[in-house]
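Methods, example record. To illustrate the input and output format used throughout this study, we show the complete record for Receptor-like kinase TMK3. The sequence lines were provided to the predictor; the line carrying structure tokens was produced by it.
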Amino acid sequence: MGMEIKHFQITLLLSCCLAAAAAAGIGSSSVADAIADVARSLARPPSTWTAGGGDACSFKGVTCSPSGRVTAIDLAGQGLAGTLPSSLSSLTALESLQLQGNALSGAVPPLRAPSLTRLSLEGNAFTSLPEDFLRATPALRSLSMDGLPLPPWPFPDAIFSCPALHNFSASNASIAGRFPAAGVVANLTSIRTLRLSHNNLTGVIPMSLGRMASLTDISLSYSHLQGPVPAFSPAVAADVVAGNGFCLDAPGPCDAQVSALLQVAEGFGYPLNLSRSWTGNDACSGWLGVICDASEVTILGLTNYNLSGTISPAIANLTGLKKLDLAGNRLTGEIPDALAALPSLSLVDVRNNRLTGKLPKFRASVDVSAEVNSPSLGSHHGSGQGSLDDGSSQSSDSAADASSKLSA
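The corresponding predicted structure is encoded as:
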């Protein structure tokens, strides 16, 4: 009986050892295959890298754990060209990937490395990012990707799932669209360096960004940001104002009409063309689609401008508004009831959108056109004047100019 138990124990021990060896072999094979794929994908791989295999942990720039898993690849400034293989995602133990200062091109492959803390891609020629970019790298502390010739892409939401992030540098990296809202930015609790200059970011910077205790260096210059400038601590190296469209060059509130129109732009998602035109602190200084009389906004005409989003109730803060023309866009949601309270309003044209709900209770004198939306909207033809011309030749010329710009 004792001999049988001893035999069983020996057999079990041998089985565990063989299983462990097999697992290690599979892991080593996967690592070797991934590194060999990288070598084959590079036009000029480092001299120690061989596409035929070998001990990947002995290759220049490769660091491995005691168990043989690749934890770091440092090929910065090696004059490399070529692409990166998708098998790079099999290196799940990566903690650092430094590829900056080369001429690598093509797609950045997906990374499945939950322990990755440093990712450096800047100074290459990558042309696309994976759909799940940053979603499998929650431990990231430093991300640099300046100067990548990417197609326009939005600010990466997944970066806010990296609470340990200290450095995010992506200047001149084709980031486009609205700057993240205050509630989202608040998740960057460890951020020290934020460099996003020379992009196509739009919208208003949350004031809370200036109050982030961890921040020491920020660059947002030469984009299309609007609204008030946040107040940063004197200890923060801030390069923010140059090349943007803030209402003032120093912290302080914007003009009331400017603030209202920026809320209108927010409803549309801060489109780039409005961000390029709606700059400074005077809405009557040639803003696209805006016509004034005696420094008061009287007409907002943005017809056929491919706008999406919703109609902001902040339009009701333009108390001198007479004509509102948003026809021929892709607007959704309802027409705000607050618009019915505008005392001088005579025309509302929202035809050919995707609006729903019911018309607000406009005065009988207001001419409302809402065809080609939800059938529930209908139209209301009052005695208001049905054109953008407010009766003066100056406004008529301005309207024609606005129309030409809108159709450009």
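Annotations derived from this record:
The domain at 25-246 is CATH 3.80.10.10 (Leucine-rich repeat, LRR (right-handed beta-alpha superhelix)).
The helical segments are 2-41, 182-185, 256-267, 272-277, 393-407.
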